[in-house]
Design goal:
The chain is mostly helical. Helices cover 58% and strands 12% of the residues.
Length: 154
């Protein structure tokens, strides 16, 4: 098959029979490069650990904030219900005050002298014949406006 690669086997510093010449200074350079890569990897690993730790802390803070928001929403909803109940009670009290005021006004009227009988409680009945008779008679009847009391309330 074309395009397939066989695994490379190294024997006696030879690859498929081709000799490799690796000098000791090349090995030093390779080991230094590997050492630098390992140090960079360690630094990156430490940075990643710090980022992951900070992310976990932020996540914990976010969860606490979400819990606090839910708690405050519950309190707000409860206070809204209480506020609605209080508003209804205030409306009831205002209506009660209106009713009480109307009843007070109906009960506490000011007395006035009856304008029909001039406060006497009686109305004189008369015609010209009664008044001209000797002695003049003044028949009376109870005033219907004040029911004979001489006082009207208004």
């Amino acid at each position: 098959m074309s395009g397939c690669h066989n695994p490379v086997s190294v024997k006696n510093n030879c690859i498929h029979g081709i000799a490799l010449s690796i000098l000791p200074c090349d090995l030093c350079d390779l080991s230094k490069r590997i050492e630098k890569l390992e140090q960079a990897y360690q630094a990156d690993a430490e940075t990643c650990k710090e980022i992951i730790f900070a992310g976990a802390q932020n996540h914990a803070i976010i969860l606490k904030c979400e819990e606090k928001i839910k708690e405050l929403e519950n309190k707000y909803n409860a206070s809204t219900e209480v506020e609605q109940i209080l508003l209804n009670r205030i409306k009831e009290l205002e209506r009660f005050q209106e009713i009480t005021q109307l009843q007070y006004q109906q009960r506490n009227k000011t007395p006035y002298k009856c304008p029909v009988c001039d406060g006497e409680g009686k109305i004189r009945l008369g015609s010209a014949q009664i008044l001209l008779s000797d002695p003049p008679q003044h028949p009376t009847k109870a005033c219907e406006s004040c029911v004979g009391k001489g006082i009207v309330w208004g």
